[in-house]
Structures are given as structure tokens and as C-alpha cells.
Amino acid sequence: MNPPNFFAQGTGLGLRRDFAEEVLRTPPDVDFYEVAPENWMRFGGRLGKQFRALTERFPFVCHGLSLSLGGPAPLDEDFLLELKAFLSEHQIRLYSEHLSYCGDDGLLYDLMPIPFTSEAVDYVASRIRRVQDILEQRIAIENISYYAAPGKEMQEIDFLNAVLQEADCGLLIDINNIHVNSVNHGYDANAFLCAIPGERIVYAHIAGHYVEAADFLVDTHGATIIDPVWKLLDSAYDRFGVFPTLLERDFNIPPLAELMQEVETIRSIQNNPKFQHG
Questions:
Q1: Domains held by the chain: number
Q2: Which CATH number belongs to the domain containing residue 61 in this structure?
């Protein structure tokens, strides 16, 4: 039986403007959609009406890009109030953000790793709690891919678990990021997976990446998903049960029909008889 924190069932797809009109015209077999609120919340006119039409018909979640939970600048509480109104207007079922930072006085347009320290745990957890207070809802944080760990005092998994515990928030588990980090930093992906508190998982991302070298992967969301990542998703379901899982594709975006082939792969793994319990 699914835990009560699951907002939806089945498979999801990151909505892109490239195919938003096609989704409205001929809806594919997708259970929920995800958008970055920063890309939609200030649009009116044709795009605003199109998004309203979509959220009236389909379940949506929001995955933020700019909150900079681990950044040194104060939280943008004006943005959070605007976001709160947007979530309410469109009946968005969940808001998530990256366990990272992306700037100080300005945005870097990249996701930087928070130092894996106890001081950083306290800092970012307090900011997550403040976000939850303003939004009046529990949010989820996503484990990010990273390429350096400045100031590291603890392992990534210990840092992640400490933040989840102290902030009392949900987890958006990114399967590809676990694989990418395991290759780049030389740890066992399944051991990392086994150490995650499964009761905090609210949904998952799965995506492709770029192979720079055998021991250096770049998290791009711009390629098809490879077999080890699919196997890691299978292992996650095996350990925690089936949870909602969303396909991310942020560039090199193929036709919707091609994306749906990967969505169907997610569904086929979810529907494996070994995960079906009476």
C-alpha cells in the first residue's frame, strides 16, 4: 500500500512548452506533470490561458529552480508569497526544490553543492522549515548531482538524511543523480539507496546524462536513460515499493511520442508482478 504522502500514482512527465499544445490537443497516457514555477507563474495572455487549461485537466507538481535553499542571501519571501498564490490558483499538489544553492545577490543559473557539514545541516534545515511555514505545506528536497565537495565533513548520504530529519520535509529522489554521483565519487549506488529513509520519498525523477569519461558523468537531462539507471529504479521499487516517477528531459527534446517510450518503460517497471501486492 502506498504511503499517505504520495500525491499521485504512476508516471509523470516534465511539461515543456515545445509540446504543451499537443498535450492539450491529444493527451498522452501520463498520470501527472511537473513544471518549474519560475517558467510559468508570471505569464498571462495565451501562455497563461494554456497553462490554466492544463492544470484544470491534469494533476501538476512544481519543481523550483531559484530558491537557493543553501545560499547565503536571505530567502526571497516575496517570491514565496507569489509562489504560494500560484500553487493555490492552479491546485498544485506538491512543491519541491533542490538541496543546493544557486547564487547570492544574483542567480548563477547552476546548482552548487552545499558543504556537507553539520553547520550546513542546521542552516539549510532552518530555511526549509521557514519555506514550509510560509507556504503552509510540507515541501520535498531533491538530492542533486555534484562534481566537487568543498568543506566536506560527512558523507553525502549522511548529510541528506540529517537535513531530511531536521527539516522534517519530504524527499524527491533523483535516481539518475545517485548513479552519476556514484560513478563520479566512487561509491556504491545501491548502498546509498538502501540508506535512504523510504518513508520520506514523495516521488522520483529519472533522466539521462552525458558520459564525459568512464569515471566522469555529467548530469544533463538531455539524453536517453541508460540501463544501469533503469536497474537502479527497479532496485528502489524493490526496496521501498512503487512510488510516482517522472521523466525529466530538459534539452535535446525529441517528439512527445519518443518521450512517451521512456514513460512507458517506467510504467512497465512499475507494473512488474513482483511489485504487485494483494
A1: 1
A2: 3.20.20.150
Q: Side-chain half-sphere of 26: how many Cα atoms within 13 Å? A: 5
* Residue from 135, 160, 122 nearest 64 by CA: 135
142-176 pLDDT, tens per residue? 998 888 777 789 999 999 999 999 999 999 999 99
Half-sphere exposure of 239 (CA within 13 A, CB side): 17
pLDDT tens digits, 103-124: 555 445 556 678 899 999 999 9
Where the chain has pLDDT below 70, the residues are 1-6, 101-112, 277-278
Q: DSSP letter at 8? A: S
- Count CB neighbours of 161 within 10 A: 18
Taking alpha carbons only, the member of 163, 70, 61 closest to residue 110 is 70
Three-state secondary structure call for residue 137: coil
Whole-angstrom Cα distance, residue 171 to residue 179? Answer: 17
* Strands annotated E in 36-85: 60-63
Could you tell me if residue 142 is inside a domain? Answer: yes
